[in-house]
Give the backbone structure.
Amino acid sequence: MKKIAMYFKFAIIYMLVIICIDIFVICKKNVSDRNGRVSVVYLMDKKDIASMFIENVEAFRLAILQMERNPISSVIADTSWWDPAPFFSPYAIIYDEDKKRSAALDVPVSSRLKAYTDTIFYNKDSLLAVAIVTLEMRGYIGDTDKKNILRYDARALFCCRGSVSEKFSIYPFTFWNVIGYNNKELATKDMIYLCTHKVKGMGMSADTVCEGGLYLGNVDEPSFFDSIIFNKSYDGLYLFQYYVYMGEVGLYNYHSNIRAK
């Protein structure tokens, strides 16, 4: 009986060890809710990406606000306000019905803009990804009925990191604009459809260093991450981390990515 009890205890311990290993592996997998699985890493990635989007918009709001208030002291060398895509900076500006012009928000962006990461498409090691972010915003201030109207946009982001334990750095994936919707779910659905059905074979835009290159798959296909834009340059950075503006090549220098390092 003692031997049976000992074997029984050993079997229980063995099963607990296997369960713990399974939980660890699941948490490290490159998962997406589109695959019917949710991991701790996936949920954290969704939260971090949405927060970083808002963080970048807020950084542009502060830079543009300072430039508006003191334009004489602003110098061209100060590129803290520069968003060549443009991708984040448009959300830092709002239309004032009283002043009849657009201006930088004088209150934190988070009071008028919310970001939700709906879906993340990972590569095989989860170090590269495309994230679909839906934005909910109020686009007007002043004495107007429009100030309470909600508008929804959906954006796609390139994401990269050195290990699964790190936060992603985020960059614009510019192809189509899904903007001005009055329904959050519809905006998200349309962006996901475009990403999963219309990217394969599409030429890369002129604002990338890969103009003329083709995407080898849709974002939910492994071949997508074999596209040339995911190659690295001589300095070890991915080609999607660069932009081309007026013939000059530059490196996207977003606030959230600097803080993530």
User: Anything to note?
Assistant: Residues 16-37 have pLDDT under 50 and may be disordered.
